[in-house]
Sequence to fold (522 residues):
Amino acid sequence: MIADAMTGELEDALALRGHLAPTAFNGRAYPESAPPIDARGSADAWLEAEIVRHLDLLVGMPVPHRRTAAADTIRILRGPVRALTAWSGAGDAGELLRELASSLAAAGLAAEPTGTPPRPAWVRFLRLPALAPVADASPVVRRRLDVPAGVLDGSDVVVRDVAWSADVVEVRVARAGAMTPTPRRWLARVIDPVAGLHAGQPGAASGTDVVFRLRPGLQEVAPTMAITVVAGAEAADVEVVL
Amino acid sequence: MSARTPWWAGMPDAAVELRCQGERHTVRWHAGQILAAAHGDADAEAALGALGGDPPACLDLLARWGRQAASVELVSLWRRPGEDLTGFAPAQVRPLVANASGPGASPAEQRRADLLVLLALPAAMVDRLLLAVLAATSERWADDAFRARHGLRLGAALAARAEPALGRFACDLVPPGHATVTASPAPPGERTHITARTAGSERIRVDAFLGLEWLGEVWARGVSEVEGRMVLAVRGADVARHALEVDLATWREAPGGGWACAAEHATIERQPEGGWRLAR
Fold:
């Protein structure tokens, strides 16, 4: 609930700065509840999912606009990071943000590298040319998996299959016993050893299945994929062999 | 804000022109109030409007302002330090609020429409709205439930806005880059308290507890630093002279070791070309 509210506010900040359409503006009031997220590890899961969402927005922009947008990304994320660091009392939620800043610098999108090393998968993703939306792309290769990935929102999560083409990677996830027709803000990302990071916006839901459509696509089959699905501040991970 | 100085004292007016009832009207922010000068009896017109029909655009804006003048979320949404943000374009917003402002709208739809309209105002007007929000948050800071709900957000906002000035203030003691600075809101009823102590060779640690009112009183006025001096508080305003009575931060050696921040009274004056200077 709180993690959703924080995500909604980040969307509002992005819309106000022109990085999302004004229709994405939520304008919701912050819920009346005390802790932002219920555990420190969850805070990192939420923040990393948000960072990947921002990376996806960045590579959707024309290359000349990315530098300005990258500065906005750091500015926008700094607020919740400061709040999470203050809330945790110890530890430093800023480490992921410094990793992002270093990755942006390594990709030529920011002038201020930090002492933290960049994350190679993020740098590689940020160096992609402007990616078209995946709405019209269709995967051509599909692998059935049916592997459990953990529990999200009280439901067992199973990765049903992955599919890909040169334009898109599709991940279909099933929620066992899920009652809600549409999951709250679920995000997914895939890392494979060939192309690196694949990221995207929340996908369509149908019945108990959720389909995530991620960019970039795959030019060749990857031997393994690390799949992460995040709902609010909960994360489910699984590594699959293809 | 100190008891004798209203939070809006010394802030220049701001205005927006609207198309209202077939004419060009001006809605003005003046001395902490938002005013629709073309509508002599705004309350009566609003009451009539409530009986049916679209309210005049000026009064619609006043109503939206009134509903959101304590929306703490605006502290995070609006400009960050160093950011030149202009907000939404009115033409972008118009179709999004067309069906979300009537009596049938849910509170969430109404709030979203309010914020879209307000964030499409000229930046100077949104700055004044934020000032009102900051004044409201300072007044509510003593409320435990309010702090539980918004303390992290406001703490983060204060830290983001105060730490750069505190870092430069620390340069009175050590070279740039040799201070670790943390800023937090002072607990309710406690005064601003800033200390520094050595932290390893050639480094110091600065811990600052600033009254939350610093955000509205000092930062939002654009007087966090004047001629390289950090401003801790505004104590009075001379509107005619465009001058503010302020407390400047200065270091004193602390009896038990380290340093403590003390306040030094000064007058600052707004310059015709913008910016502030210490009065000579």
User: Anything to note?
Assistant: The first strand of chain B starts at residue 14 and ends at 20. Chain B touches chain A at residues 71-73, 76-78, 80, 83, 85, 87-88, 92-93, 96, 108, 111-116, 119, 145, 148-150, 152-153, 155-157, 159-160, 184 (CB under 8 Å). The longest helix of chain B spans residues 144-170.
